[in-house]
Amino acid sequence: MLAPWQSDLPVEMDREQLERKAGRALSAEDVATLQALGVLRIRGASYLVASNQLAIGIRLLELGFPREVAVAAAAVYQEHGEQMAKELYEVINDQLAPLYDDAATSEHFREIMERLKPLSVGGLVTAYESAVARAARNPRRR
Q1: Phi/psi of residue 105, nearest 5 degrees
Q2: Which residue(s) pair with 12 in the sheet?
Q3: Around 82, how many Cα atoms within 13 Å sit in the side-chain half-sphere?
Q4: Rounded to 5°, angle at Cα 90 from 2 and 6
Q5: Angle between helices 51-62 and 15-22 (to 10 degrees)
Q6: Mean pLDDT for the stretch of residues 90-115
Q7: What are the DSSP calls for 65-78, one per residue?
Q8: What are phi and psi of 13, to 5 degrees?
Q9: For residues 58 and 39, what is the distance between their CA atoms, to the nearest angstrom?
């Protein structure tokens, strides 16, 4: 139930492969920003790269997106992601799992969970998009 729900697995790359895929040389600051954006993780001397998001991260770098903002946003994602995961776990554990004699080993329960993953991610994206649209309609005035 707690397995990662991301459909695309990260691709392991060395620095040369990463820069080739990025289409440019990357400074330490660039790498730190991409890391804060969640585009890559460092594992030893290699990088685990969400290759489907790399072009977006590179474009943000080109636009001068500040690392400090990426770090602050990552903290928000982490905090709220953990809270959401906890609450969803409680819903599944308290309301769904009891419907199965042995949810831990039930193949039927596992299939339900696998099919629920993309719908949950889609629901999260939709809720986020709606909240951002509402916030954009009511911008904060200084």
Answers
A1: -120, 0
A2: 48
A3: 5
A4: 30
A5: 70
A6: 84
A7: --HHHHHHHHHHHH
A8: -140, 150
A9: 9
The residue with greater pLDDT, 124 or 64, is 64
Q: Using the 8-state DSSP alphabet, how is residue 140 labeled?
A: P
Mean of pLDDT values over 46-62? 95
pTM of the model: 0.68
User: Cα 32 to the chain's mean position, in Å?
Assistant: 16
Gyration radius of the chain's alpha carbons: 19
CB 10 within 8 A of CB 41: yes
CA dist., res. 23 & res. 55, Å (int): 9
- Which tokens in the block code for residue 39? 């585009």
**What are the residues whose beta carbons fall under 8 Å from the beta carbon of 67, sequence distance 6 or more?**
29, 32, 33, 36
Top pLDDT among 95 and 110 is at 95
CB neighbour burial string for 92-103, b if at least 16 within 10 angstroms, e if fewer: beeeebeeeeeb
